[in-house]
Amino acid sequence: MIVTSASPAAPTLFPLIPSEDTSNSETVNIGCLAKDYLPQTITFVWNDRTNTSIGAANSMTFPPIFNPTGTYTTSTQASVPATDWNNMHPFYCNAEHSSGNKVKKVVRSTILIPIEPQMIVRAPPLKAFSSQYLNSTISCTAVHPCKQKTTLQWLREEVVVDSDFTTTKPIPDGNNNECRTISELVVLKSEWMADKRFSCHVQSESFNNTLEINKQSFCDCPDHTDDVRVETIRPSYAEMFQSSKAQLTCKVYGIPYSADISLLDITWTQGPEKKPLVTKMQPGIDNENDMQYVTATAEVCVTDWNSGEIFYCKADFPGVFPKPIERELRKHIGGTPSAPSVYLLPPPPEQVALKEKVTLTCFVKGFYPDDIFVQWMQNGQLLKPEEYYTSDPILESKMPEKYFIYSKLDISQNNWSNGDIWTCAVGHEALPVNVTQKTIDKNTGEIATPSVFRSQTRTCQKDSVFFHSFIVIIIKDLTFPSFFVKDILEGVMCSLALCFGHPVPFELN
């Protein structure tokens, strides 16, 4: 028990109102502070504006604190509907005490806390400049009292801009009657990279300010132009087989968004005399590392590529490269070509027994050089590359240098059980007609296709009749789909024309 010499006294009450925004709440917690009363016992009752109690369940009283003066202090809290509170409806805190009862009105304050206007200007995201329009936006945000008329104005090099911007109406922020107005100005990459100055001017009854921004003020960081690289990419055998053209690719990568890609010029030339080739440059493409890359391609005859001719890619990039960079590209001539052996493996019995998906595997080994392609067919129809997986070539032996790959195709149990025919077609330059295939189905297992070999010396046959008959026998014996036959015939015609110096008629009956 606390002993005090203070005289009994009734409490003095003070209202406690929430300081945070209550516009998005369902209920609001308000309070009442009782100070300097004695004796300790006190009871609180909360009533609304109709003098009806809000109920004990919606209020609570905190334990009293003994003051150094010998009196007590405590507080009570009530949970009331936010709609009533925000509509300025009063609530009453009733303190019942032996020294005298007291009542305190608790109502939302009508005094607004002064708002200090603020403004923020944000630079354009450099990544946006990579779009086909080569533009981006600068944004200006002003935070201001909702009741004050606020205007935003853009300037370019201190000249008022009257177009190419959008400005929102004031948007309530929900905090102390604050509003937010946002304006966005479209800027061209050429203007931003030229360090043009842009300004946002905000004016209201109590605020007048201008913020300026340009590329230099936004970022003093290095532009990483030293990281830009140039590489050449050889044509794939699959593309050459299907299009009868060899596509040369030059790639400039590691380009920062601050660099002006419109200044980049890439050209392809052929041979020691640097014969110009038709070069197609693609638009910049985003990298995952917040950089860009650009590719430029040129098409040449497959015979030129296979001859070992040297091709040159020259990349000129003012402001990035001190001088043009040149890279060579040619087919590697060396080693002894070796035709692949192809094995088509059925799904293992354990997998078939599960009655789920089954896997066909095409194993290709012993080939050189390593450029090869694999395609799958179902009942003679080509499947999309995304329907199967093919590994990269893997070194099988160093002396002699040979490679192997594998390709796997997952199919449904129904397609396998129904007897569908599955074909693995393999293309490689050391094959007699550049392509071979193996076929399999549930009933027959692997169906061996005729194997055709050619000598390692690549010389043209002098007897055109013999060569003509040899090709016809090959094509008639193999079960290639129509598009393969077409490509084979085109390749044969090209080879014969080069060999004999004139077009050779060819007809498949």
UniProtKB/TrEMBL annotation:
Residues 11-108, 117-214, 222-315, 340-441 form the Ig-like domain. Keywords: Immunoglobulin domain. SMART domains: IGc1. PROSITE patterns: IG_LIKE. This is Ig-like domain-containing protein. It comes from Varanus komodoensis.
